[in-house]
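Researcher: Please predict.
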Amino acid sequence: MRKRSSRVRAVVALVAAAVLGAGGCDAADGDPPGAGGSQARAKPSPTPVWDRSPESVAAVGDSITRGFDACAVLSDCPEVSWATGSSARVDSLAVRLLGAAGAAERSWNYAVTGSRMADLPAQVERAAARRPQLVTVMVGANDACRSTVSGMTPVADFRADFEDSLRALRKKLPRTQVYVASVPNLKRLWSQGRANPLGKQIWRLGICPSMLGDADALDAAATARRDTVLERVEAYNGVLQEVCEKDTRCRFDRNAVYDYHFGTGQLSHWDWFHPSTDGQARLAEIAYRTVTAREP
């Protein structure tokens, strides 16, 4: 029994030495005793979902993104577009992100003057063919600017078309980022431009009748009409924000364009409706701040 007991004690001692030796090897690998092993090692920081310096840009939207009436009457002027223009006077989003040479090679403008939200899915399909890392969206003013208030795009249709646009993009480009600009405050546009006699004359030709028609009328009916248009624009912006927030690679400007207090210097002197070159530059600033912000 004594010999067997001695042998048992010897085996236990050897096992204990082996266990301690194994523990010592673990400690030598980098974890001090009691540090909790690999679980205590610092976890690598997750890669941010939003890339603040995309390497290519495609723009979709309406006449604002085409620079309509910024350079000449009744003409597109994409070189001053806030999104992809080459003009040094504007310093477009693409130029700020990519440099002048990079913007010339890796930015594309698929916006179409007169477009409404219903036209956006087709524009997104064309833009996706370029496989851009960032798509900019500015659309909605024409949905509110109709011949009558009743002709404005219903909010439900506006939402469905915007959702279709994002789905079409995600189907082809799941990692492409999207910047969404809010619809401008059309009532502020009326209040700024109505002080200019020439502007009011031009508006009578049929520019945004739902808001700008009978610009001098201040009766209850005219006030109610303008307020209805404004409420619809705000509803559109609510849709843009809600739909965008469901997509981790989409950033809405948090109504920065809508809230911007533009004056007549930011309006085209051809129609007192579209942005001037200076107005395009202000839109570029807002977009760049949103795209490059550390937090949405």
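Model: The chain has a mean pLDDT of 88.
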